[in-house]
Amino acid sequence: MLRESDRRLVEIVPTARQLKHQQTEFYGFIHFTVNTFTDQEWGDGTESPEVFNPQSLDARQWVRTARDSEMKGLILTCKHHDGFCLWPSRYTGHTVAASPYRNGKGDVVKELSDACREEGLAFGIYLSPWDRNCPVYGSGKEYDNYFVNQLEELLTGYGDIFAVWFDGACGEGPDGKRQVYDGERYYEVVRRLQPGACISVCGPDVRWCENEAGDTRASEWSVVPARTADTEKIAGKSQQADETAFRERRIQAQDMDLGSREILKGEEDLIWYPAEVNTSIRPGWFYHSAEDDQVKPLKELIYIYEHSVGGNATFLLNIPPDRNGMVHPRDVRRLHELGEYIRNTYDKNLAEEAEIICKDAMEGHGPENLTEDTYEACLLTPDGVTACDIVLEWKTAVKIRRVVLKENLLCSQRIESYEIQAWRDGTFCTVYRGTTVGYKHIAAVNELETTRLRVRILDTRVSLALAFLGIYE
Ligand code: FUL
Predict the structure, then answer these.
(1) pLDDT band at 29 (very low <50, low <70, confident <90, very high)
(2) Model pLDDT, residue 292
(3) DSSP string across 91-159
(4) Residue 419 C-beta-side C-alpha neighbours within 13 Å
(5) How far away, in angstroms, is 235 Cα from ligand 1 center?
(6) What are the tens digits of pLDDT across the range 104-129?
(7) What DSSP string describes 254-278?
(8) pLDDT at 85
(9) What is the pLDDT of residues 291-317, one digit of tens each?
């Protein structure tokens, strides 16, 4: 049934940079600074640069480890809250240049951005707006000038940047310094110097998933009210104090639904604002030897991967290098296992061997397009056909564990609900009930064996624009 009110919802689509970012799917965070050497999570800005001395830093090892896990990019904490710069900034003495690292001649931002480029990974920067070392933090314009100068150094000196991550965290408390960030000015600088980069978290392009534990929403919408991107509110929900409890907190119940028809009703201003799920492979964001035996189990990482990348979000997984400047062997092993799982599971699409039927498809946009993973060839239904069946038939029974659906985001996000059914004893039995799809949904079904599968689209906004269907053992 066509709902007229859905028409304005499907007008909202991603920008080219948002789409590219979403297609990056899975990428890593590198938390590394003086904290690595002082065993802290939040430095207070009084740390001596002398402590920063990784003896065998090898950015290529970080990149190879990331690539082996199937990550497609890395974001580096160029400056965390402690204010120490991993590049020799001209605007402060509190940098690698004052450290013993490579006798003060080092530049970690350069080493990592070069390594990423050489190995084919995207490179992104994290620059903490909250700076506990900078004497003019809290001064208003003067601090903004300092921040923008550093931003310009990073955006002009290190090649293409795919993401600029502005953290909302601030632990100043009610009696601390108060700096009102000139966000619009920062965004203008990013747009001008790196028009392809997405501005994440406290920014207009990529939405923080509102927790650091790897929790995901069952129904993740990318079309949300414009007020969702209010940076003051995002900052308010971000970390306000250095505490483990915050890192373990999950998404709050009242924040679970951001984009259902019910929520969007009466909202005048809508935006495309896709989610990013960020968490660390260990309890902390920075490396602590005491956490060597707390590397997340493979099962948990797979779960988060399949519910983020496979839940209409991107996945940003932190892999903190140790004091030597290397990703620890335990993390390396776990990341290799994760990469192997992803490669093995999503290697062979069984839909390619099936006959696929959909009676409601528009001419020239039939189900044969579904095995081509591109937006040029899709399954489309006419406006008003908001429910349809896609049936797959195999000559001999196949084993199935995962079903992957992808919408054509150039037509917005449309699917509201669907079911997957398997042919069993002469009838179709429901094996999975799904809601949103968006960029990609990975449906984890209990392992089954069948000759027929039916994907029933039960409700979609205006019509169906399905780009891909994958069936995996
Ligand atoms: C938080 C920060 O306070 C943490 O230290 C970490 O950088 C995380 C990614 O974001 O807001």
Answers:
(1) very high
(2) 98
(3) T-S-BGGGSSGGGGT--HHHHHHHHHHHHT-EEEEEE-S--SS-TTTTSSHHHHHHHHHHHHHHHHHSS
(4) 11
(5) 11
(6) 999 999 999 999 999 999 999 999 99
(7) GGS-SSSHHHHTT---EEE--EEEE
(8) 99
(9) 999 999 999 999 999 999 999 999 999
Query: Which atom of ligand 1 lies nearest, measured to the CA of 29?
Result: 9
User: What's the DSSP call for residue 285?
Assistant: S
| Average pLDDT across the chain, whole number | 97
Q: Give, as one character, the DSSP assignment of residue 206.
A: B
From the number of C-beta atoms within 10 Å of its C-beta (0-12, 13-18, 19+), residue 141 rates as exposed
Rg (CA), the chain: 23
Task: Decide if pLDDT at 1 tops 90.
Answer: no
CB 176 within 8 A of CB 130: no
How far is ligand 1, taken at its centre, from the CA of residue 169, in Å?
6
Render pLDDT for 332-346 as a digit per residue (tens, 0 to 9).
999 999 999 999 999
List phi, psi (to 5°) of 198: -90, 140
Nearest to 359 by CA among 336, 325, 387, 389: 389
For 403-438, what is each residue's pLDDT tens digit?
999 999 999 999 999 999 999 999 999 999 999 999
* Whether residue 238 has its Cβ less than 6 Å from ligand 1: yes
Partners of 391 in beta bridges: 357, 454
| 212, 317 Cβ separation under 8 angstroms | no
169 lines ligand 1 (CB under 6 A): yes
Paired residues of 460 in beta bridges: 415
Tell whether ligand 1 has an atom less than 6 A from the beta carbon of residue 280.
no
Q: What is the mean pLDDT of residues 464-470?
A: 98
Cα separation, 54 vs 65, in Å, equals 18
| Start-to-end C-alpha separation, the chain | 34
State residue 124 phi and psi, 5-degree precision: -130, 160
Strands of 320-464 (E only): list them.
Answer: 355-357, 379-380, 388-407, 415-424, 427-434, 441-460
